[in-house]
Amino acid sequence: MAYIWHLEKQRDHKEGYYIGKEVSEDDPQWDEPFNGPNRWPSPDVLPGWRETMENYHQEALKVCKAIARILAVALNLDADYFDTPEMLGKPIANLRLLHYEGKSDPSKGIYACGAHTDYGMMTLLATDSVMGLQICRDETMKPQKWEYVPSIKGAFMVNLGDMMERWSNGFFKSLLHRVLGNGQERFSIAFFVEPNHDCLVECLPTCMSENNPPKYPVIKCSTYLSQRYKKTHADLSIYEKQT
Ligand SMILES: O=C(O)CCC(=O)C(=O)O
Ligand SMILES: [Fe+2]
User: Fold this and answer.
1) Engineering a disulfide at 146: which of 35, 67, 134, 209 sits with its beta carbon 3.0 to 4.6 angstroms away?
2) Which Gene3D superfamilies would you find in this protein's record (predicted)?
């Protein structure tokens, strides 16, 4: 079968290697949505790489759980509010190793990574020193104002996503961001964290009142994520498949 792709829209100028939580076939989590085995390069080609990545995955998750405690305190919840088996007990966590190259041209719609908000609960981002990430504090402004986010050596950036905005009834904002390429190669590592697939994302008790009722209906984490994936990949319909 051959595929003929008719490109009608600019694509992001990036490539990525995605690593999910490593779940083996005998693990009860094997059948859960969004889980599966990772594909690892042979240790002959990259000795020790799998161990390094698995270690990064585990440590990044610990950092995100610590951040979740800070978020809980900021929301006047108990610090361990998100630490329950139903929430961050068996989180969905994905590591994305990103590589960008080329020069972006916003006037032609060419980006290293186009404007978007992250879907989930939070993203822990490590970047190299090549500037590229931009944020837009107010999406409604015309024209939109984009600001570079300087990378700080040894520091992570934390981005709260749409699920956190929904969960907190809009208290936390999921910020619009994009990446511009300046012709230099750029590498970044994004780590996306969501609660358990069956966690009910329901307005947090401290984020609603009589004057501020819940703005979003309750939704199961997996349903929410599936909806978001589907929307993102709906763009694939612009390609025509031929046999
Ligand atoms: O590479 C970056 O700095 C940002 C990546 C990003 O926003 C994403 O993958 O969602
Ligand atoms: Fe992002």
Assistant:
1) 134
2) B-lactam Antibiotic, Isopenicillin N Synthase, Chain
